[in-house]
Design a protein that fits this description.
Layout lengths: L4 E5 L7 H9 L3 E5 L2 H6 L2 E4 L5 H10 L3 H10 L4 E4 L1 H4 L4 E2 L5 E2 L6 E5 L10 E6 L1 E2 L14 E6 L1 E5 L4 E7 L1 E9 L2 E4 L7 H22 L1
Parallel strand pairs: 1-2, 1-3, 3-4, 4-14, 5-7
Antiparallel strand pairs: 5-6, 7-11, 8-10, 9-12, 12-13, 13-14
């Protein structure tokens, strides 16, 4: 079994230091980079993100890494985990501050969450999940595990690609998966032990893939 290297894609949106700390605790080998060669040499990826959809896509374009990401993820089927905004930009489009085109890796769109007197937006704080697909991301987590959220927009996508939801006024997509592509709306790097288990499950899945491919 080879020693996989994960690349945390550093494209200028959000603080990735908490993710680095989580991966260090798990003993994972990783680099933080937006260099094309590093991305090509990586075995898996984490796509973080905090902020606006348009800025995230503009940064990916300006750093000229969209082509290499598409090749490694869509053609070579290398695993990737998108976190918060990093999950949302996997969609076809977003209505945040206008219409913006996303990566188009998972069919769907990002839309504004509905606020009311009872439901405050942004959705900030801890919430439990309703797990739809336990494998591979949630096979180590407890039924009552809770995770840290911070977002005002939600991913509207097909049920077949939803692996978990949470309740915030309405059912909100909390995690998606499609083949080698995974995304979570919450922040596992800020979700203590439960979040570490999400990372561990992601990497365990990669190791299992290595065994099958060997």
């Amino acid at each position: 079994m080879k020693n996989d290297k994960t690349i945390i894609i550093d494209y200028g949106v959000g603080n990735h230091h908490s993710i680095e700390n989580a991966l260090k605790m798990l003993g994972c080998e990783f680099d933080v980079s937006c260099n094309k060669k590093d991305i090509r040499d990586g075995d898996s990826y984490i796509l973080p993100g905090v902020g606006a959809f348009a800025e995230a896509m503009d940064n990916l374009n300006s750093k000229d890494i969209l082509e290499v990401l598409n090749k490694e993820v869509l053609e070579k089927k290398k695993p990737i985990l998108g976190i918060c905004l990093g999950m949302q930009i996997m969609a076809d489009s977003s209505e945040e501050n206008g219409h913006h085109v996303g990566l188009g890796w998972i069919e769907g769109r990002v839309v504004k969450m509905d606020a009311s007197e009872e439901v405050k937006i942004p959705h900030v704080g801890w919430n439990n999940l309703i797990v739809k697909k336990r494998k591979p991301l949630f096979d180590l987590t407890k039924e009552d595990a809770h995770y840290y959220f911070d977002h005002s927009y939600r991913f509207d996508c097909s049920h077949e690609n939803i692996s978990a939801t949470c309740l915030h006024g309405n059912d909100i997509v909390a995690a998606v998966q499609k083949e080698n592509i995974f995304g979570v709306q919450f922040h596992p790097e800020k979700s203590q032990v439960s979040g570490l288990k999400i990372f561990r499950s992601f990497f365990n899945n990669i190791k299992n893939m290595d065994v099958l491919d060997a």
